[in-house]
Write a structure and sequence with these properties.
The protein is mostly helical. The chain is built from 6 helices and no strands. The chain has one domain: Four Helix Bundle (Hemerythrin (Met), subunit A) (Up-down Bundle), CATH 1.20.120.
């Protein structure tokens, strides 16, 4: 519930920021939130990795390691990827067409929702491990989280394309 409220607040702020021409600040705020959630997710994954190690679940440990690498990649794309500020000329506060604005806000919302779902799935996985879940089922959940992180990366890449187009004046 809290994650959904935070996502809604962040999204509303983003929409308002994009509307008022504060593109650079809004972009930075969304990227900061993505990195914050990625850090939170990585922390959960490290706990799961430790449990898997303690329980001798090598397959799960390897899968969680891959998932942590995906999480790191998401954080890196948010931090170092194409952004309005890195590409921007401060004088360009271009107006986003409604279609682009809607696409950008939708990408932001989907990205934040997916990261919230990943954290929720990590909590589920941790709970299952505490209850004594078998390794095979745990691996399936870890793969599901990794698949969502891949979707997040794709949304971030699409988001970067919107900014690239804006910077080119397309």
């Amino acid at each position: 519930m809290t994650a959904a409220i935070t996502a809604a607040k962040t999204l509303f702020s983003a929409y308002e920021g994009y509307q008022r021409g504060k593109i650079s600040e809004t972009d930075e705020g969304i990227r900061d939130e993505i990195r914050r959630r990625s850090d939170m997710l990585r922390s959960h994954l490290e706990n799961i990795h430790n449990i898997a190690y303690q329980e001798g679940m090598k397959g799960l440990r390897n899968e969680v390691q891959h998932t942590m690498e995906s999480c790191n990649a998401v954080s890196d794309v948010a931090q170092f990827g194409s952004s309005y500020r890195s590409k921007g000329n401060p004088s360009i506060q271009g107006n986003l067409a409604k279609k682009r604005l809607k696409a950008l806000v939708n990408h932001d919302l989907k990205t934040l929702e997916l990261l919230a779902e990943c954290v929720y799935n990590c909590n589920q996985l941790q709970d299952e491990l505490i209850k004594g879940s078998n390794e095979e089922e745990s691996i399936k959940i870890a793969r599901h989280i990794q698949q969502k992180l891949t979707r997040v990366q794709n949304f971030l890449n699409d988001r970067n394309t919107v900014f690239d187009d804006l910077m080119r004046g397309a």
